[in-house]
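Quick one, T. Sequence first:
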Amino acid sequence: MQHTVTFPSGKTDYIFIKKDQPGNSSFEEVMLLYDKQHIVIITNEHIAKLYANLFRSYKILVVPAHENGKDLHAIESLAKQLLDMEAARDTLLIGIGGGVVTDITGFLAAVYMRGVSFGFVPTTLLGMADAAIGGKNGVNLGLNKNLLGTIRQPQFILYDVNFLQTLPNIEWSNGFAEIIKYGCIFDAELFAELEHNNIAYYKQDDAALLSLVERCVAWKNKTVIADEMETGVRKLLNFGHTAAHAIENLYELPHGKAVAIGMVIACMISEKVAGLGREDTARLKRLLQQYHLPVSLSINASKAMELLRMDKKRRNDMIDYIVLEKIGHAAIHSLPLTVIENALNEYASHN
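Structure tokens:
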């Protein structure tokens, strides 16, 4: 069973598939809609092994499964392989994997022959709820996360929860960090729903899980349609990510764990500059722990601040920082870097 949603004024088809009976492949059925001769699949080494039979009749490129491999060296290597395959302007790249794979695929599609079509099949909860959506495709420059990138929308995103059957427990937690983010910035009812449930509940109830994912897709797509180039409201999606990007590569953290820490730091700042109540900060910490995400980490504030100064949102000695006024309502504040530095120092002194 499947249904396709194209949100108003959107450029991407969102294809949601309910779990099939064992042995059936909804992925293969949907892929029949596209010309296999022009498809090149990009996936990571783990997915390639797990689903080798599924991909056996496709051209396939395999990338590392870790963030360290998401750089221009990877793009150059993949472009050369596409050239060897005689891939042309009518090639359709399909990224099947988590956020690293979709970032690489989208970036490569934007620059290969000045642009080819692409689609995503996210295989992680984080990819389904956030990373695959919105058209931002970036690669890292050293420790600076996503410093090089493009904004270009995929032709489709296929949501097949069959792929989540092989997802490790830690990746479920990573995904819920982004889902919790949406509750924080947009949707107090979503936040409350998460408080009443847990990972085990959503793993056992496909309908509830797909409803949750579709809710996040709707929020992000609405935001992207309003501000595709991130000059205004789309910045709200960066809640927790400014500090997260500074510590993610520094400490080789999974993205969701880094975002969890970043949201805690953002709440500390929000209490000071946006009037966020301490009870809301406490609620967020409890919810993060409920979904097996960290709220404390020993960090070197000075090193984190060095990376944060390279953040794309910085303007001179100011930075656009996303703060919470209350659960379900975020705002963009232009803050002096000293405010962020003080918060990092305070956080480091207590952890």
